[in-house]
Structure formats: C-alpha cells, structure tokens
Amino acid sequence: MTTVLLACGAAGAALFVVTFLVDGATRPGYRPVYHPVSALALGSRGWVQTANFVVSGLLITAGAVGTWDATRSWLGPLALAVFSVSLIASGVFRMDPMRGYPAGTPMGTPEDTSRPHALHDAFGAAVFTALPAAALVFAFALPGPGWTIYSLATGIACLVLLFAFSAAWERDEPRTGLIQRATIIVGWSWVALLCLHLSG
C-alpha cells in the first residue's frame, strides 16, 4: 500500500508540471513567460488547470501519507500534506482576471480583488512555503548525504525563487511567469523524486 501511495505522489507532481507546461504553451493569448500558472484556471479552458490543481493535489496528498508510512516521521509528511491540500484549495478558489489575461482584460493589477482571489493568494502562499519547509525537514530525516544535500538545496532554492517571484510580481516584470515556473519545476521535481526514492 505504501508503494501505491508514493507512486500517486510522484504521478501527481509530474502531472501538475506536464499539464501546465502543455496547456500554457497552447493556450491562445496566454504568455507563459509573463503570466502565472494560476491564470490558466481562467477563460473557457480554465477547467483544465482547475482540475490539475485538484487532481494533482489529491495524488500528492496520498504521497504525503506514503512518506509518513515509509519514514514514520511526522513533520516532513505534515508539511507535504499542507502543501498538497493548499494546492487543492488553490484550484477551488481562482485568481481574478488581470494583467491582460484572459484576452480583453486590462493590463495591470486591479485595486480591488474578490474574496476568492484573496483566498487563492493565501493558499498559494501556503503552497510555496510548505514545500521548501518539507524539503528542509526531510533533509534531516532521510539517511545518506546525497538526499541531505539535495533536499537542502531544493529548500533553499525554492525560498530564493519564491522571493524572486514575489518581487517580480510586485514590479510586474515581463519574466514573472518564468520565475514561478522555475520555482514549481524545482520543487515539484523534488516531490516526485522523493516519492520514487522512498518507494524503492
């Protein structure tokens, strides 16, 4: 059963990345280098990214249970569960249209945003802080110097990229989406590899 749960976690992390990369590259009017991944939940094809948030989050939640079963430590799996449940909630509550997407939306960030947007932001913050926290905790919970170094590097890289993304978002920089994608790929790859490692 543990192996199945961990396989779900690895599949969920991979599914999330592949889906937003393909959908973002083929979505009319969407600029992957500029727009955030969350904006893919808007528009007529928004259901794809909404489903991606929820399905991937559920699969990674199963993976979090698997990491607990495999390690019998609780803090790292708990951080991973906070990450995955927050990912689900990010799909339930969508961001508001802004910065030119969907097509016809004014550029810039509106002064007033909706309650769902505020909740999406709050859960998004939980996603991007719980993941590096999980990596840093697992760095000291897993045997072997290789995983210690990799997990530490992932946790630090995700925090640095999070601050870079936050600054880019506030300044409305043209490469905001690219920085967020780098954050996601680094972090979600670690989740997938962690689950695969523990399942072996």
UniProtKB/TrEMBL annotation:
Transmembrane segments: 74-93, 122-141, 147-169, 181-199
One Pfam family per UniProt: DUF998
Keywords for this protein: Membrane, Transmembrane, Transmembrane helix
Record-given protein name: DUF998 domain-containing protein
Source taxonomy: Bacteria, Bacillati, Actinomycetota, Actinomycetes, Jiangellales
